[in-house]
Design brief:
Length: 360
């Protein structure tokens, strides 16, 4: 039965294919390696008892602590409901529907396109090269009508860094014409590669960050936009009056304390060590064509028969993320780094599959 109210929906929303998050895709298991989360919970205690009052729009302690952590000043920082809200705010504030264009480089994070299409903003794509790097000459050929360029580095879902010089070339070519938004959701796993220090040289550079990954707070929904003060003030015009609830601001502030940052860095070291142990082990299995190196808390494996592997693991309660429909990622499944025991469970399960994907 058709929805009688569907005729009232904006056409671009009717035609929109929503982003399929890990939770939307579901599954029933006890080894969840599909959402790039930290695998075990981290304990925090609520200290604020002012739930009868509205929170600050931009909680001062959270902003101050993140600015110090990022090496910036508070007027360079905006906090939002995850980096996903920041992606949307930039489009709302800077793009004229039906006129401006957003450019992104697949395979990459799916919310750049969904957010643009939701607001009736056109999109352009420039596929990464076969080496999963920016195709800079091709990008520069089609940036005339582009208002925002989204670049994800380290890139999701490939797990690798984009070349700094390529990002710099895009920034140079777009100066005065467009914003270049570098999504650094996973930068804590390779902090030396951050481009935040470039903001003075490139005032149109915007950097996105999050507490969802290395800070182990995916359920908190807290992200940051790092940019020149003028960009931050523009985004404040369109952000919701109270984007962060009091408990979220409370926990975020604790996570950004000296003790919280020390704990985050210990988690990063732990996950990086597990990753670097298991990638070469998995690469040797008969069912694996290639296990790719990574700069993040996830990595890709190309299997000889990925549909059979994905279903076989799913049936055993080991949930991965299927990337086979993305350009350049045929046969690839994405693996989030779990605990050592979870990764060992994955390894042992994969030993049951032969080169053709059949259970041995």
């Amino acid at each position: 039965m058709s929805d009688p109210m569907s005729q009232l929906v904006r056409k671009n929303v009717r035609d929109l294919t929503p982003y399929q998050s890990a939770r939307r895709l579901g599954g029933c298991g006890d080894v969840w390696l599909n959402a790039n989360e930290y695998p075990t919970p981290v304990n925090f205690s609520l200290t604020q008892q002012t739930l009868n009052r509205y929170p600050e729009c931009q909680p001062r302690e959270v902003i101050s602590r993140y600015a110090q952590y990022a090496g910036l000043t508070p007027d360079n920082v905006l906090v939002s409901r995850g980096a996903d809200e920041a992606i949307e705010l930039l489009i709302r504030a800077y793009c004229e529907p039906g006129q401006d264009t957003v450019l992104y480089c697949p395979p990459t994070y799916g919310m750049y396109s969904v957010s643009a299409e939701t607001y009736g903003v056109q999109t352009k794509t420039q596929r990464l090269t076969e080496a999963w790097q920016l195709d800079v000459p091709a990008i520069l050929q089609q940036i005339d009508s582009v208002k925002i360029v989204y670049i994800c580095s380290p890139n999701n879902p490939t797990g690798h860094l984009l070349k700094a010089e390529d990002i710099r070339q895009v920034l140079t070519a777009t100066a005065g014409k467009a914003l270049v938004v570098v999504d650094e959701a996973y930068i804590e796993f390779c902090p030396q590669a951050s481009v935040v220090s470039w903001m003075q040289q490139f005032p149109h550079l915007v950097v996105l960050r999050t507490l969802s990954k290395a800070f182990a707070l995916a359920g908190l929904r807290c992200g940051f936009t790092l940019a020149q003060p003028g960009v931050i003030q523009t985004l404040l015009k369109v952000i919701a009056p109270y984007p962060l609830s009091t408990p979220v601001a409370d926990i975020a502030s604790q996570a950004l304390s000296d003790e919280g940052l020390s704990a985050m860095r210990a988690r990063v070291a732990e996950l990086n060590a597990i990753r670097d142990t298991f990638i070469p082990r998995l690469a040797e299995l008969p069912c694996v064509e290639q296990a790719f190196l990574s700069d993040t808390n996830y990595f890709l494996i190309r299997f000889h028969d990925s549909p059979a592997i994905f279903k076989g693991l799913w049936d055993q309660g080991i949930i991965l993320r299927d990337q086979t429909k993305n350009p350049l990622l045929g046969g690839c499944l994405r693996v989030s780094i779990g605990t050592e025991a979870e990764m060992e469970s994955l390894y042992q399960a994969l030993t049951q599959f032969g080169p053709k994907g059949a259970r041995q």
